[in-house]
Design a protein that fits this description.
The protein is of the alpha/beta class. It has helices at residues 3-8, 18-37, 50-62, 92-99, 123-135, 195-199, 214-221; strands at 10-15, 43-47, 74-78, 80-82, 149-152, 177-180, 190-193, 203-208, 239-245. The chain has a 6-stranded parallel β-sheet, with helices on one face. It has a 3-stranded antiparallel β-sheet with strand order 4-7-6. The longest helix is centred in the first third of the chain and has 20 residues, at 18-37.
Length: 261
């Protein structure tokens, strides 16, 4: 097995509690940001919502090394967004701003939010506009940026971003962002990035806690069908890491846990 193949394999990192996990992920996040930006390179980051998404960002804010990052070199995006009012607490961007973005010196143009409901834009237009914004920072390979780190939460059903099991959005490969209607998890209308965009990331970090996530984690690691368990198809080009607490890790084989990473 080549080093590149081995490095791209899925790793599992376990911490005792959600708080310890958030601090551990934040520590690694700041290390990656520092490595990426210290020579003036841009770092594109995809954020996630949920309790752990916010906890990681709060831990990042509270770490003294946050003050050492040149935030003008960092661009924030979201793997998905709820199509609700801009100040609605359900919006991932609202949670991210409260946890970190409003507390760091980052240029407004570096924060790439999905359009909000009630501002004269339809759901389809919001998805198309987000795809166009991604294309502004596209690479030679793709009309979207390659995220230095892509954070993903994982639902008990194995969903990531707003790619839910056995729905058409899971298999779309010819678009960067999609409208989602009748989401099985409220609110019903969302915009999501597609699998090709997520998997173009250098590092995909899936952060999940709780016993209700153990089954989804086990299926994702066992190589379940991506259409049935979307988390099984998440794969970074350099690293794919599941950061979990002990409760979520209850069904993980010990030989899959990486104590050194």
């Amino acid at each position: 097995m080549s080093t590149q193949t081995a490095s791209a394999e899925k790793r599992v990192v376990v911490e005792s509690t959600p708080a310890a996990l958030a601090a551990s992920v934040a520590d690694r996040f700041l290390t990656r940001l520092r490595a990426r930006t210290r020579n003036g390179r841009i770092a594109h980051i995809a954020l996630t919502g949920g309790s752990m998404g916010g906890a990681v960002l709060r831990a990042t804010r509270d770490d003294p090394r946050s003050a050492q990052i040149d935030w003008s070199l960092v661009h924030f995006w979201w793997g998905d967004e709820r199509f609700v009012a801009r100040d609605d607490a359900d919006r991932n961007a609202v949670q991210s701003r409260e946890a970190l973005l409003d507390h760091i010196p980052i240029p407004a143009e570096n924060v790439h939010e999905v359009a909000a409901a009630g501002e004269g834009v339809t759901l389809d237009e919001a998805a198309a506009a987000y795809a166009a914004e991604l294309a502004r920072y596209g690479t030679e390979e793709h009309p979207w940026p390659s995220f230095a780190v892509c954070f993903l939460g994982v639902g008990p059903d194995g969903h990531i971003a707003s790619l839910f099991p056995d729905r058409p959005e899971v298999t779309v490969t010819d678009a960067a962002a999609l409208p989602v209607r009748d989401s099985p998890k409220p609110p019903p209308e969302r915009v999501t990035l597609t699998r090709p965009v997520l998997n173009a990331s250098k590092r995909v970090w899936l952060v999940l806690t709780g016993a209700d996530k153990a089954s989804a984690l086990g299926l994702a690691l066992a190589g379940a069908s991506y259409t049935n368990v979307p988390a099984a198809g998440a794969k970074g080009r350099k690293r794919t890491v599941f950061f979990v607490d002990e409760a979520a890790a209850s069904e993980v084989s010990p030989d899959l846990i990486d104590p050194a990473y």
